[in-house]
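Thread: "does anyone have the structure for this chain?"

Original post by V.I.:
We have the sequence but no experimental structure in hand. Need at least a predicted one for the grant figures.
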Amino acid sequence: MNNKLIQNIISQLLDVQEKENWLDENFKKKIESVGEDKVFQRPLPALHSIAELISHVLVWRIESIRKLEGMDANLTVDSPENWRTNDQLKEIGWPNLQKEFYQSIYTLIELLSDKDDTFLEKNYRDEYSFKYLIEGLIHHDLYHLGQLGITIKFLNLPNHTELGK
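Reply from O.Q.:
Generated one for you, C-alpha cells below.
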C-alpha cells in the first residue's frame, strides 16, 4: 500500500500529542506540568484556561473525525461548544476531558492508518481535501500548544496577575 504521506501525518499527530520532537514540546508534557488545581484558572482575563484550550482543540479534532467518517459535521467558530466556559468544563471534569482529548488522537490515527495516500486528495466538502483538513488540524494543534505554553508560564508566575515581574 502506498501510504508514506499517511504514515508521516500519523507520526506528526503523535509527535504533537506525546512524542519527542524538534520543538521539544507536546501536549502531554505541557498538561502534565500543571496541577489539576490550575487547569480551570485564567491567568489573565484575555487568556484562556488550560481546560478551555484543551476542550477547544478537542472539539475540532472531533469535527475532523466526523468528516473522516463521512458524518455530518457543522462546527463553526460561533458554535457554543467551540469555546466552552470553565463552569461547563468543570461539570465534565478534568479527568474526563483529558481522557477524551488523548483518545481523540488515537481515533484519528485509527481512521487514517488503513488509508492509501490517494485518500488525502479526495474531497470531504466541495473543494476541501482530506489533506487540507488533516494538515489544518495539525497546524491548529500546534498553534494552541503554543498558547498552552504561554498560559502555563503565566500560571506559574508568583503573582500571575502582575505583568512584567
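V.I.: this helps a lot. Strands lie at 123-125, 128-129.
O.Q.: and The chain has six helices and two strands.
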